[in-house]
Write a structure and sequence with these properties.
single chain, mainly beta, 2 helices
Length: 67
């Protein structure tokens, strides 16, 4: 698993699986899932992290850790 945070977009991406992204689905406002052609979960994008996750993810993955 890998994680990246883009401060300018206030978005985090968690790569949790292997393979190319074949399908993307917004399952809730601000939560986007990426799936492989086989249907496996490849990644999770969290948009407006500081608002939607109440900063919790930022404490685990500080912005300077993504650089």
């Amino acid at each position: 698993m890998s994680a990246n945070y883009a401060a300018e977009a206030d978005a985090a991406y968690l790569r949790v699986g292997e393979g190319r992204i074949a399908r993307t689905e917004e399952v809730m406002p601000g939560i986007v899932l990426d799936f492989s052609a086989e249907g496996g979960l490849v990644g999770i994008e969290l948009i407006d992290v500081s608002r939607t996750v109440a900063g919790g993810l930022l404490r685990v993955f500080p912005p300077d850790a993504a650089e």
